[in-house]
Amino acid sequence: MTDGILLSIRDGLARVTFDRPASLNAMDFPMARRWRDVAHEVTSDASVGAVILDANGPAFCAGGDVVAMATTGATGAEVTQTAAAIHDGIRTFAEAPLPIVAAVQGAVAGGGLGLMLTADYVVASENARFVSRYANVGLTPDLGVSTLLPAAIGQRRALQLLLQDRMLDAAEALEWGLVAEVVASADLSARVEQIASFWLEGATAAFGQATRLVRLGAGRTLAENLDDEAATIGAAFETPDAKARVAAFAAASAKGRRS
After folding, report:
1. Which family does it belong to (predicted)?
2. Does residue 214 sit within a domain?
3. To which H or E segment does residue 18 belong?
4. Is 138 found in the same domain as 37?
5. How many domains does the chain have?
6. Cα–Cα distance, 195 to 243 (Å, whole number)
7. Same domain assignment for residues 23 and 148
8. pLDDT tens, 218-247?
9. Global pTM?
């Protein structure tokens, strides 16, 4: 039983796949708990150096499963508990020193925006569409949308999405900075695998720490960030990978000066 999310880990790469295509990968209650558990499993696995976040079916994620909320007799307290479980997973991924790339196709709606922005690098297919729709059903932003969306595109543009029934196409999302790249639908999977491979074949730990520093930095003082940066680069300098890369860089620079 997958509870709507598939997980595979192989050769340092974790692939987390939303798998409720008939519901546009909207998160119901079991899927919310599965997301939280997958986040903890992936981030606690020392073999994992990079993560791909993708989805099966025509859409990436339609956010929370409003139909399930309406038809199961859920209470406000249960909705809050479910949101908290998803938030636990988002926070766990966002604060981990692991670079994450998302492959996004079709609709991304409501909380799906927050789940998408859990990734550090977002690649969208040319058919991707992005919309809020919270207020359409009388609900408020969750799944990190009130924080991650303005961090990505700025407060004014975030409010345009949240306060108007506006849908962005892939080209507009790229212009706004909501996604990093737009590719042909047929090329989406190959492109995110290429990005993840680049991380795994390079200074994997350094990429991961860069994502952690940027994510945490938004909520801390400059002094705290500077202290963390200093400690992190010092720790990185002592690793065998960094020692080898620094030595190679120094040797190449010295050779260039002599020639």
Report:
1. Belongs to the enoyl-CoA hydratase/isomerase family.
2. no
3. strand 13-18
4. yes
5. 2
6. 24
7. yes
8. 889 999 999 999 999 999 999 999 999 989
9. 0.92
